[in-house]
Amino acid sequence: MDRLLVTGGAGFIGSNFVHHVVAHTDATVTVLDKLTYAASREALDGLPADRVRLVVGDIADAAVVEPLVAEHDAVVHYAAESHNDNSLGDPSPFIRTNILGTFTILEAVRKAGNRLHHISTDEVYGDLELDDPQRFTEATAYNPSSPYSASKAGSDHLVRAWVRSFGVQATLSNCSNNYGPWQHIEKFIPRQITNVLDGGRPKLYGAGLNVRDWIHADDHSSAVWTILQKGRIGETYLIGADGELSNLEVVRMILAHFGRDADDFDHVTDRAGHDLRYAIDSTKLRTELGWQPEHGDFASGLARTIEWYADHTDWWRPHKAATEAAYAAKGQ
Question: 183 and 190 in contact (C-beta within 8 Å)?
Fold first, then answer.
């Protein structure tokens, strides 16, 4: 797989994967990205022009997708609309990108006969009770609770159907919540970090007891590359780094980093249908393919992430006021 097409490769986790490929392999990469508000050309800065090129286009446009897919050995499909709150306000972009876009990718891969890896989320499984000792596995039944997670569940089912019905050479992965550099400030961790950097207070949905299973984007990237190289066709692998923390715990860790009081935050209106807890069991990935996370210490990974946002205020600050205004309009 010397030639990779990475959809959504100018977004947060997609760009991280592109950097990982360049740093650890000799492959060349074409990034196909629509460059929506959540993507950034700057996330690809510094990469060698002879190994990485950016094509601006829509994954739901077959005229753009088919010739690009045909030129490459494998497609790594990151592109997605991914913000739950936005999906509650207007589900239509999520249906177009996550379902129709995945269908378009699948048809192009079917025609070209090349390899596909499809990136998904643990949110397709719904949520777990806070006191439930269980974690999500590859056998967990789907139970999406928002237009976003439902659209991702639909895309997962499409990939599995194309593997079974048409012999498409695809694997899938469902990952827990990512954190790290280049994540849009509408997302939970960068929003809280940038609030504090701007002299404000973090905002906590409801009581802040909802639990997420955090993984550094670097570890997600290494897991995807491992699956692409070693994964069995038609199989799903769950990616997680045993990083379960409540939103309240994360906010207090951010405050502690800045020397602020542990209760120096604002409670805001909880979002509709807010899932209680996500937790990933990545045993299959670790035992079958030999993958291990390198960033197991969330506190140190969070500290590096805070430092990154402090060093890149010119990237996120132009978008901060509009992002906070949109939240404020919803009481959040």
Answer: yes
